[in-house]
């Protein structure tokens, strides 16, 4: 090997090793969070606090509000052995009218640049970003921007923004 070839190989290795470490290291690092359920929930409208959903429907004066608090879905991973997500996603309404997306018993493969989206489909062709994923394990809450049409944005995604890769989705219904 000539001196120039050794230098070029050295430069390639010097660049490739840190890039590979950055891309792969999140697979071995877990971040855990356990955010509490907000205390200012519209408790009189929470589906999971009522034993009988028909009782809840009788107590609701606004059918759309009753529907809102019953919106939930289970996360499904991509199924490729690398990108995975499990747990429940729920839309909850607060006393002040704001809404949150709550992940419960959530667990995902970690990755670089993971974000939480409400989207129209699993390909994130049209979405509302709720911000970076707080942790890949645990219960967590995300504020939904006012005016978000939840009948349109009905899929919760964990999305790798940097590589445009889906880690998991939950269809909310």
Describe the structure.
This is Secreted protein. It holds the Pfam family DM13. InterPro entries: DM13_domain (IPR019545). It comes from Candidatus Nitrosotenuis uzonensis. With about 170 residues, the chain is α+β, with helices and mostly antiparallel strands. The chain has two domains: about 1-30; about 30-170, Immunoglobulin-like, CATH 2.60.40. The protein is about 20% helix and about 30% strand. It is built from three helices and nine strands. The strands form two sheets. A five-stranded antiparallel beta sheet has the order 2-9-8-5-6, with no helix packed on it. The radius of gyration is 21 Å and the shape is elongated.
Order of helices and strands: HHHEEEEEEEEE
Count of helical regions: 3
SSE class: alpha+beta
Biggest sheet details:
5 strands, antiparallel
Unreliable sequence segments: 45-67
Remind me, CATH topology of the largest domain? Immunoglobulin-like
Strand elements, count: 9
Mean pLDDT over the residues = 85
Q: Which percent bin holds the helix content? A: 10-25%
- Backbone CA Rg: 21 Å
Number of domains: 2
Determine and state the CATH class of the largest domain: Mainly Beta
Strand content: 25-35%
CATH architecture of the largest domain: Sandwich
N-to-C terminal Cα separation, in Å?
Answer: 63 Å
Shape: elongated
Strand arrangement in the largest pleated sheet: 2-9-8-5-6
Organism: Candidatus Nitrosotenuis uzonensis
Protein name: Secreted protein
Domain DM13: 73-173
Pfam family, one: DM13
């Amino acid at each position: 090997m000539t001196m120039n070839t050794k230098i070029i190989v050295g430069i390639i290795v010097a660049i490739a090793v840190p890039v590979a470490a950055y891309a792969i290291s999140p697979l071995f690092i877990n971040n855990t969070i356990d955010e509490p359920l907000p205390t200012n929930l519209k408790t009189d409208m929470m589906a999971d606090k009522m034993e009988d959903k028909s009782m809840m429907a009788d107590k609701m004066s606004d059918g759309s509000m009753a529907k809102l608090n019953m919106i939930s879905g289970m996360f499904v991973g991509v199924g490729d052995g690398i990108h995975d997500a499990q747990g429940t996603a729920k839309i909850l309404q607060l006393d002040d009218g704001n809404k949150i997306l709550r992940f419960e018993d959530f667990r995902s493969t970690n990755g670089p640049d993971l974000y939480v989206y409400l989207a129209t489909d699993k390909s994130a062709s049209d979405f509302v970003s709720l911000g970076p994923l707080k942790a890949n394990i645990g219960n967590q809450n995300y504020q939904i921007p006012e005016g978000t049409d939840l009948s349109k944005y009905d899929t919760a995604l964990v999305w790798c923004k940097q590589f445009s890769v889906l880690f998991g989705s939950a269809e909310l219904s």
